[in-house]
Amino acid sequence: MSRMGYAEKGRRSLHPLDGELNLPPDLYSLELQHRVAEEAAKNSFEEVVATIDKTTGGHVSKRQAEKVAKRSARDFDAFSQMRQCHASEEKTTGTGSILTITADGKGVVLHEKDLREQTRKAAEKRRQKKGKRLSKGEKKNAKRMATVAAVYTTSPFERTPEDLLSEGGSRIDKMKCPPIENERVWGSLGKTPEEVIVEAFAEAENRGPKHDKTWVGLVDGNNTQINILKKITKAKGIELTIIVDVIHVIEYLWEAGRAFHPKSGPELEKWVQHRLKKYLRERQATWQEGCTAMQPGRNSVPKNGPLWINALPTCSTNLPTLGTIVILPMGCLSLPG
Questions:
Q1: Rounded to whole angstroms, how far apart are CA atoms 96 and 213?
Q2: Burial group, residue 210, by CB count within 10 angstroms (0-12, 13-18, 19+)
Q3: Which region ranges are annotated with the description Disordered (predicted)?
Q4: Each residue's pLDDT tens digit, 12-44
Q5: How confident is the model at residue 284 (pLDDT cuts 50, 70, 90)?
């Protein structure tokens, strides 16, 4: 398309029609860049180039596709900050009484040069057995942890162990959960887990500076995240109830059960279900009780028993006395009764 331009020596040409049409200063249109960014989030850059060629009338080289994808993410933090929720919004919408901070992590395989310093040093010492791909166990020092956080408001939702472990299956899916309100989700691959969780606390402070709601931290049992939550709450003097979802914690029960029932089957499943229901009911049961009471005639814990008992200190020993860490089913948030 031909259009008039104004030029001056040593300066970039000015095209009024470009401004009127809101055209980008780059070679590619905004919509084409949008398509490239969306495809880059799902596929390799080779596939991005092929898809753009097949589905549009434009063509983007691989190197340009990489630059477009990188530029599309440069305003991520600024965009995320614009979506902060403040106390005035919470009051206007009439939100629930529970303010929730949740975090999760995901390992992303990267080139050694892009790993964090400690992981990179460990990766440099690793000896690769195969020339083209990593063997089992070799990916341990090949990932960088991305952290995703979310802050939202909800209302209490009480359930019983029978709702989770009824004979006909879980009844929770059929129950109406309180809505999630004013949810804000963001994440980072560049920032440390602590930096992301600190941002989550800042978001929560914006919503409830008077701390008039019940603060809850929801995690999947990651000890690093739990320690960060404890560290921040201690420094800020905030009372926080940490909830660990039962889906991840139950894996420890399965491992403990295999010490008595090595083969998978109804006996192992019954053992796990019985111990989980007992734990959720009483909140006083310990792993030591479980490993001895369920195996009549044994005077000691099996060889692998202590490994599973000690694997979850923060989720068992603190629960009965401190009431700080509670194990509850995922899906709908509730507070201990």
A1: 8
A2: exposed
A3: 1-20, 117-142
A4: 888 788 777 777 777 888 889 999 999 998 999
A5: very low
Question: For the chain, how are helix, strand and coil distributed in percent, rounded to 5?
Answer: 45, 15, 40
List, in order, residues 6 or more apart from 271 with CB less than 8 Å away: 257, 260, 261, 294
**Beta bridge mates, 102:** 150, 218
Rounded Cα gap, residues 204 and 218, in angstroms: 14
For 101-155, how does the pLDDT look when each residue is reduced to its tens digit (9 = 90+)? Answer: 999 988 887 777 788 877 778 777 766 666 666 666 566 677 888 899 999 999 9
What order do you get walking across the sheet with 240-245 strand by strand?
181-188, 143-154, 98-109, 214-219, 240-245, 325-328
Instruction: Give the side-chain half-sphere CA count within 13 A for 285.
Output: 18
- List, in sequence order, every residue forming a beta bridge with 181; answer none if it has no partner: 153
Cα separation, 130 vs 222, in Å, equals: 31
Q: Which amino acid is at 20?
A: E
Q: Minimal CA–CA distance to 142: which of 133, 131, 155?
A: 133
SS3 125: helix
CB 150 within 8 A of CB 199: no
Distance CA 207, CA 199 (A): 13
pLDDT tens for each residue of 187-209:
888 899 999 999 999 999 998 88
Cβ 36 vs Cβ 62: under 8 Å: no
* Mean pLDDT, range 234-255, rounded to an integer: 85
User: Across 12-16, 59-63, 252-256, which has the greatest mean pLDDT?
Assistant: 59-63
Question: What's the rounded Cα separation, in Å, for the pair 245 and 224?
Answer: 15
Complete DSSP assignment for 24-87: -SSSS-HHHHHHHHHHHTTS-HHHHHHHHHHHSS----HHHHHHHHHHHTTTHHHHHHHT---H
Structure-token pair, residue 323: 């009431």
- CA 287/CA 276 separation, integer angstroms: 11
